[in-house]
Amino acid sequence: MPLHSNESSNAFNVELERENDNTSHWLLRLAFASSIESCRWFVNHEHWLLKLRYALSPLKEKAEFVKSIQLPYDYLTAPQKAELYDMLSGSTLHSRSVEAEEFVKVPWTHVTDLVAKRHVLLHKGFAYVPSSDFFSVISSRFRDQLEGEMDRMCRLLLANPIEDRVRTLLDHIRNSEHEAPQKQVKFDELSAGDIEASSSHFPPCMSFMYGHLKSDKHLKYNGRLQFGLFLKSIGLPFNEAMLFWKRAFSKFSDDEFNKSYAYNVRHNYGLEGKRANYGCWNCKQIILGPQPAPSDHSGCPFKHQSSEQLVATLQSTYSLNELQLKEVVDIARSGHFQTACSRVLELHQPNSAALTEPVTTPTQFYEASLAQASKKM
Ligand code: SF4
Is this structure's pTM higher than 0.85? Predict the structure, then answer.
């Protein structure tokens, strides 16, 4: 959504842009206040957006913004800066000169960390913070405030459930693609017999389900959907998928398979029901989905498994030592599930430059792992 600066008001309808931005912000608050995890996702992204918009704003608008948030902060005017020039020159540790820097006057108790590090001028109860350090002051206040408000909204929604019709709409907003659109990768076609060899490139979620499929000769509905759509996306055509699932469900007779499970496979390939061309679920859809029941092996191991389970899942497929396992589990426990997943690939395949950002779809992990393996050949 474009948000032009106030200076562009002759060329763009900035009022309308702000109105739309405000409406979508509150709608997203409502949609993402459904769980602690989705609140955290929302706060992180809003924080990132604030950082971007602040960095791109001209100084005049930064000063107006600082005034508008009704905190006791002020950008120094040119005469004020001239008055304090000598003291600012003596105090600032920044390589930029006082002329080139802008300063914000802040009660010193709001920036005790900067005061302790002697990064700011302290004068008559105020700290004079270089604008290059000032964003961290605003951003931590913004994050604290938004987290508190999301927390309150989350509790309110739990106590006062929303009408089903509205909830469906909000679920749809939350679960729709809130990642940048993924490029569609066309993988080489696979046969049912290729899946075992390809499985060494599966991300942890798929590897975990595939392991259970082999040992239990069965997967529950969500697993069949999540894993089946992944196999489709990495190049398994319909006829081979039918063969693969029939073999995998070998404890069932052909009749039982055809009666109870063949429909799912046909549905995944758009041959039943709405006949839609379903693609692989992305990580956010999987992560924000409900907690799977104990016998349902779908979901994201980083989000849905305990630390002990996660270690066992990772050890079964990837060559990670104890320290590396601890690192990955720590990342996952801090709520950065996709970063933890990317880290597994980096550690499992050292020198991998293929994933520079947290993984956003299971097929992206698969593609990066395949690319790294083919480099080694
Ligand atoms: S982060 Fe994505 S690809 Fe990795 S395990 Fe979770 S859902 Fe699968």
Answer: no
